Amino acid sequence: VNVSLSGIGIADMIPPGRIDTLQAQTGTFGSGVILSWQAPADDGYDATSGTCASYDIRYSETGPINTIAQFDAATKLDTSEIIPATPGMIQAFEFQMPEQSTEYWFAMTSIDHRGNVSLLSNTVSAVSLAVELSWFKASAGDGRVVLTWETASEMDNLGFKLLRSTSLNASRFA
User: Fold this and answer.
1) What pLDDT tens digit does each residue of the chain (174 aa) get?
2) Distance between CA atoms of 26 and 131, rounded to whole angstroms?
3) Where are the alpha helices (DSSP H) in 5-124?
4) Which of 15, 16, 33, 37 is the most buried (most CB within 10 A)?
């Protein structure tokens, strides 16, 4: 008996791999957060299966997002501009936080081309700073360094503390 399966599609039931590498850090000028993660594979952890189709990133101001119910209740970010990368590549997304001096918790899922949704990622948090910088400039010359900056906004800011280092070891400041 000859059986031909040409023209018959096999349903994709395998969701993308879980993102467990989600990280958060304060954004470029203090009012945002940069989220980064390792791009998952389309089918589980099989890197040869291609890229996932999209991401669903959400945040909460009330606490960690550890369950699907908490994820569903969290605020959804517009991720339409994020193009999923090749599995294993690092991706990043900068989000401008609505309120300064507030802790935000983030979690995400990935979705494949058939609508299969990954397991919930790890949860991370970040605190927006009380000062938002418009720009910062360092100019060297005549044996000195001149620092200038402008703030876009400040909330309950008493001043600035500048640290310098003469060492390449960033943990040793004067």
Assistant:
1) 555 445 555 677 899 999 999 999 877 655 678 899 999 999 988 888 889 999 999 999 999 999 999 999 999 999 999 999 999 999 999 888 777 778 899 999 999 999 999 999 999 998 866 666 678 888 888 888 888 888 776 655 667 777 666 666 555 555
2) 12
3) 68-73
4) 16
